[in-house]
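[Automated response] Your request has been received and processed.

Submitted sequence:
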Amino acid sequence: MGTGTHDGGGPNWPAAYCCYGLVYDRDAKVALLYGGLEEDRGTWAFDFKQKTWSNLKPKTSPPPLFLHSMVYDSVNKVTLSFGGQTGNYTTGQTVNETWAYHHDSNTWEKKDPRTAPAPRAQAQACFDSVNGVMILFGGHAEVYPKRTEGKHYSDTWVYDYKADAWTEMKPRLSPSSSAVRFMTFDPMNNVAINVSGDAARKETWVYRYRKANRAGR
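Generated structure:
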């Protein structure tokens, strides 16, 4: 059920965005939005109890992005963003920067891992809350309208915030590359669930990063 109307944006409401990153920060108890295809792309927070959006305006931010991968790291209490595309639908480039947002200090922090996935947009990501890592799969690396002309990825990576390290996992089997996929983490069964958005493929995969060490959780 909606709680109001949307007029296309304003000083206290994000613009009519597309292709933004959106996560729920369960520690700050707000939804966090970053990026999108409008000019007014920034860092916003939605407080459900107050029914209000706030433009947080941190001093430093990632470059303007859309189709980036964003998750909330509940172990380290940071929002993580990877990759995405700069520019717009017809111009720009894909990137492979890793950023972390700290709500308590309203700061974005650019990370500096020694290695990282290749530049890409629309990669699927989720946060493995059992093992404390971000899981990333796939994506594509071309200007948005030219998906069929560029490279599609089917690789699997994990990011450890504390170590500031990306690791390519190279599982024996992987889903096929696809521009449209969706991924979420199932903490009860300790697996990431990856579903194809392509009606011709109708694939559902599960990925386990490692066996759970529940004694330490």
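Summary generated for your ticket: The domain at 21-178 is CATH 2.120.10.80 (Neuraminidase). The two ends are 35 Å apart (CA to CA).
If you did not submit this request, please reply to this message.
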